[in-house]
Amino acid sequence: MKDNRPDKKTMKGYYKAADEVHKHDKGYNKIGNIQYVISLALVIIIALSLRLFVTEPTRVSGDSMYPTLLNGERMFVDKTSYLFNEPKRGDIIICYYPNHTASCVKRVIALPGETVCVMDGVVYVNDEPLDESEYWNDYVFYNTWPVIVPEKCVFVMGDNRNESLDSRSAEVGPIPYNRIVGRARSVIWPLSSFRSLALKNEI
User: Fold this and answer.
1) Whole-number pLDDT of residue 83
2) 76-93, pLDDT tens digit by residue?
3) What is the pairing mode between strands 122-125 and 115-119?
């Protein structure tokens, strides 16, 4: 059966001719402008929704997560991770400290109901030394009193243990779930440094 539909060139000519005929028609031009504005608004709404509720690139500021994350790198942050699952030990999260307006990036060390402390350079969770060989292989300065992590909270530390303000400090403490923005999944910038932030036992 023969296809009698006009080709793209014909249709392009048709629209051009229609625009020429209606170029002095304010109503016609107004409709076109409205459609453009609506389309632009939809694109902006979708982009903002993705940024607010799904994902966003986040810049690393400072050296508290060195050597896992370097100052100035940008991360892919998944904001949906904890809608259906609770944080796990080893996750790198973006969160807000109490009375702080800037977000922080830290690693989850202990979970609700667990007891965590630092003793003689080692982090202990429920009286067992924590295996941190994938991201920390040095001595942790300053012992801490044992802390029981409250319900729906996590105890966080920076990978650069001796250069990090984190849950060990009384002004920070355990982080409530509702102050967690999302989970850092990978480094996306610079492109030459692209890498996953998952621990080996997750891959």
Assistant:
1) 85
2) 999 888 988 999 999 999
3) antiparallel
Separation CA 26–CA 120 (nearest Å): 79
Residues 150/177, Cβ–Cβ less than 8 Å: no
Apex 187 CA angle, 55 and 58, nearest 5: 45
pTM: 0.73
Overall size of the chain counted in residues = 203
Q: Which residues are catalytic?
A: 64, 106
User: Three-class SS of residue 113?
Assistant: coil
DSSP state of 199: -
- Nearest Cα neighbor of 87 from 188, 181, 3 is 181
Which string of DSSP letters, residue by residue, matches 48-64? HHHHHHTEEEEE--SST
Order across the sheet with 128-129: list the strands. 128-129, 122-125, 115-119, 147-148
Q: Tell me the C-alpha distance between 191 and 58, whole Å.
A: 14
Instruction: Judge contact between 148 and 170, C-beta under 8 A.
Output: no
